[in-house]
Each structure stands twice: as structure tokens, then as C-alpha cells.
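Priority: low. Protein: F-box domain-containing protein. Input follows.
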Amino acid sequence: MRSPFANTTIEKLPDKVLMHIFSYLTHREICRMARVCRKWRLIAYDTRLWKSVSLRPEISGLHVGSLEALLALISIRFGPSLRYIELPIELITHTVLHELSNKCPNLTHMLLDFSTAMQLHDFSEMQAFPTKLKYMCICLSEVIFMEGFMRKIYNFINGLEILHLIGTYEKVEEEEEEIYEVINVHKLKSATPNLRVINLYGINFIDDSHIDAFSSNCIQLECLAVNFCNKVTGSTLKTLFQRSRRLKCLLMNQTSLISEHVMAVEWEKVSLQELDITATDLSTECLVDLLTRIPNLRFLSAGQLNGFNDSVLKAWMEGGNPRNLIALDLDSSDNLSDDALYKFLSRHGQQLSGLVLSGMPHITDQLWMSVMPILNNAKILVMGTAERLGVNIHVDQLMDGIANGIPRLERLELRWDPQNLRFSDKSQKAIDILRVKCLKLRCLVLNDGRYYEIVKANFERADRNTVVRTSTSSRVSNYYLLGNYKDLIFN
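Result:
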């Protein structure tokens, strides 16, 4: 019998269906589709497909060859539909910004990448700038002072709710070089009184005075991130919490916190729910003081802390309130015993959505298998260490336990060295069970090796091509569970 769809081709699909299909493509791919035929060209250039645009080709964006080409795009293709745009330094001119403010009245999200700048364009004639911005991300240069540009936009950005200032932490050389304060935070805070989320990432000049400046004017502040700002010591934290009563999230990974400053905060009175103090060198006394006084902690990242030991966990269980905890990261906390961790997880494991116990050679698959039935609500798990072990990890048994015990799992990372993974010819069965029972699993990260190849091939045969990844290109984190996670994303 002849199929009723025998003569159906993609050309006969309704425009709205094609539009929906195109919406899953990158703009590079959409531009290629536009060359197929006139109908596809019309659909590809529909402004509804151009709501969010990156013009940074090195980060999967479109390459625009000239300012004239960009001005034409703004006028013809972007228009009122444009909500989000990323601009590299060579395309940030007063003419482009003027056109965006005129032709794109609904632009609410903007990223300006000055990170590779050796000099700025002349902004002395700039009279217009997008006025409806809620989110702005500025990637700073190490050497270019931003005040001339910033002075021109201060009057336009008082509606900002989310601000990212991204430093050059990852590019810094070992040698000590002169540090320039390339953006004036004290003036910027006066122009942005409505900020809810502030992310100051890897900026080498940010210190406690800058935190104090923002807290003096941003009374609606809910989330402050100063990860990799190593001049921050915590001396203004007490004032920050006194002023910012709504502050729920504080991320201070790899800052230079001083225990005395942290202990001076009136933690009993704070609304804080999410805290990252990873790699901050806080003392055991400080950690006990902190965790027994914060009344409602739901997210804690406290990895790479020598002071985090069994007595801290015990004090937290007995004198604190971990009953609302949903995410715990204790990466590389070598002074914690598996016995103390088992006791804590026996009591609180069932409430956890995310658990990271990586980087500890003494935590093997034995502890994980014993707590697996308790972790039945977990969405994120990170386990294992890249350090070569004297024992083997029986990964088939582990995968089977995860598959049968943690059906809601979304992200999993095994950091063990491939040489320590022991698996049999029946591995495929354990992987099959994991794939079939953990249907929400969207990311499985393994170190490159034979087991990775077996798992990857298994998922690809089931058309789940993006799930299995190597640790060289992916890392799993509890950050997905932060209340402001989507607001904190930048690239």
C-alpha cells in the first residue's frame, strides 16, 4: 500500500513549521540555509529568528566584516525583535550604539567585549545608548581605561538589574605587573541603584572597598559574586549584610578571606541561603562559627579547605541547621573522613539535589555505594579523583547502583583516572540500564580512555549524542542549582 506521505517533502511544510525548525539552528547555520532557495531565505531573515545575536566569531558567533554590514543588519534584520546582542571591540562604536538605541527599542541584554582592546574608539560624540537594558556584561581590558566610555552611558543604565564585570584573571602572567583600576566602580554604583545581581569575576583590582561601594547604593541586591577577585578579604562583609537585607547568594571562590573578618559578621540575622567559600583558607574555628550561625543555608561550596574537617561537620549537624541544604560541594577536602561523611549523608542525603565529593583519594566507590539509596533525589553528582589510586573502582556496579537508585539524575561526573576503572564484558548492560532509567541525564563526564569510548558509543547508538563528554571540555558543578544561575551566566 502506498504511503499517504510519499509525495511529502520539506518544501511542502508550512512556513511556521520551518520557522520552528530553524529556531534550533545557530545563526551561522541559518545563514547557510538562506542560500537554499527564496522561500528559505525569507524565513531565515525573519526578525523573529534574530532575537539573540552574538557577533563574536571566536565564541560561536557570526563574523561581520565591516561596520557598514553591521549597520545594515541592525536596520534590516534585527529591528524591534532584538533582545540580546554580543559585540566585540571592533564593532563597539558610537554609531553602532546609536543605531541600536534607535532601531532596537526592545534590546534588554547586552555584552560588550573590550578584553582584547589596545585602544578604544572615540565616544566623544555619542548622544544615544539603549535605554531598556536590564542585563549588561562588560569584559574588561587589562590596560584600557573605561571612564571616557562609561561617562557617556551613565545616564542610560539606571534600569540595570544584572551587571557583569569580567576581568582578565585567566590571562594573568605569573610575574607581578602594575594593576590598573580600569573602570571606576565608585561612579558606576551611583548610576545603577536597581541592581539585583552583581558578578565581578576575576578582576585583579577589586577589593573590599568596591563591595562596600555597591552595598551603599544597591539596596535590592540579592546576589553578589566576586569569584577569583583575590584582593577581597571580607573586611566589609559585616556592613554589606547590614545594608543589603535581601542578599541571598554570596560567591567568594578563591578570594583572600580572613577568618576574623568573616566571624565579625552577624550571621544569625542574615537572609543568606547560598554561599561559596571554596579555596579561601578559612580556619576550622571560623567554619564552625559560620555554619552554626547561618540560619537557612541551602547551598554550600566549601571545597579545597584544609580547615573543613570532621569536627566542622559534627558541629554543623549538632549546633547548626543543615535541614534545608540541597547542594553540598566538598571537593578536595582531604581532612574529612568517610565515616564522618557517611554520618552526615545518612541524616541529610535524601534532601540533596547536588553532591560533589571529588578530589579525595580515600573516598572510593565503597562510600558511594553505601549512600546511594539515600541520595535518591539527587540531580547532580561528582565523584572520584584524577590521582592514581592503589585500589580499583568497580564502575559497572557503580553505574548499576546509580541507574536503579537515582532516577532523577541530570548531571554526573566521574573524575577517576581511567587506569583505576575496572569493568567487564557486561559493561554494556550497566550502561544500558543507566541510559534507560535515567532519562533526564543530559551530561555524563568521564576522563578520556577506553571506558569513555564504550559509554559514548552506547549513548550515540541511542541518538543521545550530546550526553557523554570528556573532562577536558566539560565540568559538572552544583552551580546549576543556584537560584540566580541563569542571571550569572556569561562567556
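The first helix runs from residue 15 to 22. Residues 321 and 478 are 20 Å apart (CA to CA).
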